[in-house]
Design brief:
Largest sheet: 7 strands, mixed
Order of helices and strands: EEHEHEEEHHEHEEEEHEEEE
Number of strands: 15
CATH topology: Double-stranded beta-helix
Strand content: 25-35%
Shape: globular
Structural class: alpha+beta
């Protein structure tokens, strides 16, 4: 197994392994690399969807998304299909998966089958570095603050109605959890390594508790920009049969929607997490 870091901020590409036949020792190396780099990339993994599920399951139980429809044969798998010419996008905007859950996702595994000849990259941002780069005064201000997260805006904005009406390749089903709000710390501590990370995102974080609307908006607007500074990021160009796994406890990501003339087909599973502290 070879592990090669891809940028100074985050990300590593692993070669010399097949995800459908990892030994326990190899899996331990992958797990350690995920904690070290935040996101891992594997190319030329011509594996089955069952093998993708089995790999993700080694990190923990898998989620069924309450809103985004899963596959009939396995609702834990989301078929992330965008046909050529379809305008509806998925995952476009900086976010960490399902931060509107009481116990947000630990990680996600995305597997590419059909990719455009160009475009459709995914960006990742290291939230350890985002925290570390804050001034001591800002760290002191943010410590102890709680932020409100919800899917109420992300899953009801213009353009989502056609997904509920099953008119797009990726479809949604209404669930009352869309309107619920949960509270998480603005700075969370990683449960496995104790590192602190910024934990707010533009897609699901609505406001900071205990602040006026104007105060909260000003602070969140600053943090959203700060969290995704280029020096905290890496960018992955997909190839067929590539797999990415990322740690939602310390990473944000953004699916770039710049390939309208081409089809893109991916499969995603998400791993259950724990309540942020």
């Amino acid at each position: 197994m070879n592990i090669e870091q891809v940028t100074g901020a985050c990300g590593a590409e692993i070669t010399g392994v097949s995800l459908d036949s990892l030994s326990n020792a190899e899996f331990d190396q992958v797990h350690t690399a995920l904690l070290d780099h935040g996101v891992l990339f594997f190319r030329d993994q011509n594996i089955s969807l069952d093998a993708q599920v089995a790999f993700a399951n080694r990190f923990g139980p898998l989620e069924v998304h309450p809103i985004v429809d899963g596959m009939d044969e396995n609702p834990r798998i989301t078929k992330v299909l965008k046909p050529a010419g379809e305008s509806a996008s998925f995952g476009t905007g900086w976010h960490t998966d399902n931060s509107f859950f009481e116990t947000p996702s630990m990680g996600s595994v995305l597997y590419s089958k059909t990719v455009p000849p160009f475009g459709g990259d995914t960006l990742f941002a290291n939230q350890y570095l985002a925290y570390d780069a804050l001034s001591d005064t800002m760290k002191e201000l943010l410590t102890g603050l709680q932020a409100v997260h919800s899917a109420s805006e992300a899953y009801t904005v213009d353009g989502t109605q056609e997904k509920y009406e099953k008119k797009t390749a990726i479809t949604y089903s209404w669930d009352d959890s869309i309107l619920e709000e949960v509270v998480h710390p603005v700075i969370r501590t990683h449960p496995e390594n104790g590192r602190k990370a910024l934990y707010v995102n533009d897609m699901f974080t609505l406001r900071i508790e205990g602040m006026s609307k104007a105060e909260s908006r000003a602070l969140l607007d600053y943090l959203f920009v700060h969290a995704t500074r280029p020096e905290f990021c890496c960018r992955f160009r997909w190839t067929p049969n590539a797999v990415a796994i990322w740690d939602n406890r310390c990473m944000q990501h953004y699916a770039v929607d710049d390939y309208q003339a081409f089809e893109r087909l991916m499969y995603r599973v998400t791993i259950e997490g724990c309540r942020p502290v």
